[in-house]
Amino acid sequence: MAPISPTGKVPVLVDDDFVVWDTLAIAEYVAEKFPEKILWPHSKQARARARSICAEMHSGFAALRSACPMNIEASLPEIGQLIWREKPAVRADVARIVAMWDALLETHGGPMLFSDFTIADAYFAPVAMRLKTYALPVSSSVTNYIDSLCAVPGVTAWIDDALLENDFRDFEEPYRLYSPK
């Protein structure tokens, strides 16, 4: 990645000879490049709220990210139960996410956080997958949101592509032993 991105990391967007390497900057760039796609919510207040929760996602939920590595193809409810019991910071992160999502779903009527699929939903797709993989306890409206999010064609394609991968890295998957498919 070093020849492509100044940080040497992903994500990175290369548009002709122009490189953007931060998730939020990529989202803003794509939204400005394709305004007809309406990637942020319509109203000014909803856009501000969506940007706020994306920024919170960008820099927050460290306990959840650390304790629950993302792995789309895994099902780890037993590990989720242990994490839930032993890690109060994970419970706090999940409580914040559930409160945030429940409020947005109620305010905007679902099925997505701001009614229609937006950058905010894309931002939280990895969180949704962690909640699902580890079967962490969430409200029924959050469960319905996760199901709806997983049914969005772009998210479905992302999940399908992840399921085709056959990589195993023990440092990324500390709770599982390698078992070839």
Characterize the structure shown.
The protein is mainly α. The chain has 2 domains: about 1-35, no CATH class; about 45-165, Up-down Bundle (Glutathione S-transferase Yfyf (Class Pi), Chain A, domain 2), CATH 1.20.1050. It is about 55% helix and about 5% strand. The chain has 8 helices and 2 strands, in the order ββαααααααα. The protein is globular. The two termini are about 30 Å apart. The model has no long low-confidence stretch (mean pLDDT about 90).
Kindly summarize this structure in a few lines.
The protein has eight helices and two strands; from the N terminus they run ββαααααααα.
Strand sequence of the main sheet, in spatial order? 1-2
Mean pLDDT across every amino acid position: 91
- Using the alpha-carbon principal axes, give the shape: globular
Strand residue content = under 5%
Q: Which residues sit in consecutive blocks of at least 5 with pLDDT less than 50?
A: none
What is the makeup of the main sheet? 2 strands, antiparallel
Any idea of the CATH topology of the largest domain?
Glutathione S-transferase Yfyf (Class Pi), Chain A, domain 2
In which range does the helix fraction lie?
55-70%
Number of domains: 2
The CATH architecture of the largest domain comes to Up-down Bundle
| Rounded Rg | 17 Å
Reading the helices and strands in chain order gives EEHHHHHHHH
The end-to-end distance, rounded to whole angstroms, is: 29 Å
CATH secondary-structure class of the largest domain: Mainly Alpha
Structural class based on helices, strands and sheet pairing: mainly alpha
Number of strands: 2
Q: Output the number of helix runs.
A: 8
